[in-house]
Amino acid sequence: MKTYQKTALIEVVSEEQDRVLVQNQNKPEDQWVVPADVFNQTYEEVKQDFGWAIRKLKEGFKVARKGWNGKGMWIALMPSLYLDKDIINGRTKKHIGEGVDLDSQPYLVMWTASQQWQPGWLASQADMLAEDWLLIE
Question: Are the CB atoms for 10 and 27 separated by under 8 Å?
């Protein structure tokens, strides 16, 4: 027998002692009731930890932490990029040399609170252990 795992997220709309009203994420028109005991045995809360954030970055989303103090900060994954030596700009040629193709590997970037592009963002220990990551639309 084949087994399947649901990959869409659901949200709890309301909870009562014997039942839980749920809906598919961001779809209030798609609600249903689950008996509380079935809900508790079947579902677990999604921890929006660093692993979750990395998965979302790889899916093309921007993410941020609720705990960051700066307004408007987020990170994104820049995909790998290959540029032929003939179209590389002078600033890059200065560092890698003339006649060299640019083979850039994926990296993380941050849009900072001061609205600056910061390539090569690295997570702090607090960022890696946090469970307050969220998607940025």
Answer: no
pLDDT tens profile 89-98: 999 999 999 9
Structure tokens, 58: 């790889």
pLDDT at 127 over 90: yes
Dig out the tokens for 91 from the structure.
């600033």
Q: Which long-range contacts (CB under 8 A, 24 or more apart) does 83-90 make?
A: none
Residue 33 phi, psi (nearest 5): -105, 135
Q: What is the DSSP string of the chain?
A: -------S-EEEEEE-SSEEEEEETT-TTSEEEEEHHHHHHH-----B-HHHHHHHHHTT-EEEETT--STT-EEEEEPPEEE-GGG--HHHHHHH-TT--EEEPPEEEEE-TTS-EEES----HHHHH--BEEEE-
pTM of the model: 0.73
